[in-house]
Amino acid sequence: MFELKLKDRSIKLKWGIWAMREFCSINNITLEKYFEYLQSSQFDLDVIIKLVYIGYQSACLSQKEEITLTEVEICDFLDEIGSIFTEDSEVLGYMRYIVSNTVNSATQSKSKEEKKKCTALSLVLSSLLCDCVCVCV
């Protein structure tokens, strides 16, 4: 679980299989395209908002809590946080959390050779996220 810290509260976000499936379903994409999104160093603002909102929904569902926030309120919270691409950005921390959980989900039932490929993918994704911070700051 990831905690998105705001000025006077925090929002729990969770990324796992349900969230990945929901993201793919909402965007009408395959899992392969999902990995392409994560590998991209150019994140679309709509994608970032969807990733945060789906993470919020996933956390609520996992904790059996009502989903009370809307995407508009999520946008308000992102405004409150400020810059989303500074190195210490909460949103960038969440993106790293997504990459980490995506790789962990993908490697749980894989062979050693497949796990090596996923670890390599993790390094590439982490590098791209770091490059994004360097470019956007």
Output the keywords:
137 residues; mainly alpha; 6 helices; globular
How would you sum up this structure, described in words?
It is built from 6 helices and 2 strands; from the N terminus they run E-E-H-H-H-H-H-H. It is globular. Helix 3 crosses helix 4 and helix 5 (90-107) runs antiparallel to helix 6. The chain has helices at residues 17-27, 31-39, 45-62, 71-81, 90-107, 112-136; strands at 2-5, 10-13. The model is unreliable at 131-137 (pLDDT under 50). The chain is mostly helical. The longest helix has 25 residues, at 112-136. A two-stranded antiparallel ribbon has the order 1-2.
Can you summarize this structure?
By secondary structure, the protein is mostly helical. It has six helices and two strands, in the order E-E-H-H-H-H-H-H.
Topology:
Elements: E1 2-5, E2 10-13, H1 17-27, H2 31-39, H3 45-62, H4 71-81, H5 90-107, H6 112-136
Antiparallel strand pairs: 1-2
Summarize the main sheet: 2 strands, antiparallel
Helicity range of the residues? 55-70%
Our count of helices gives 6
Q: Terminal Cα separation, in Å?
A: 27 Å
Note the run of SSEs as H and E.
Answer: EEHHHHHH
| Strand tally | 2
Shape: globular
Low-confidence stretches: 131-137
Broad structural category: mainly alpha
Q: What assembly state would you assign to the polypeptide chains in this entry? A: single chain
Largest sheet, spatial ordering of strands: 1-2
Mean pLDDT, as a whole number? 80
How much beta, percentage-wise?
A: 5-15%
Compute the gyration radius: what is it? Answer: 15 Å
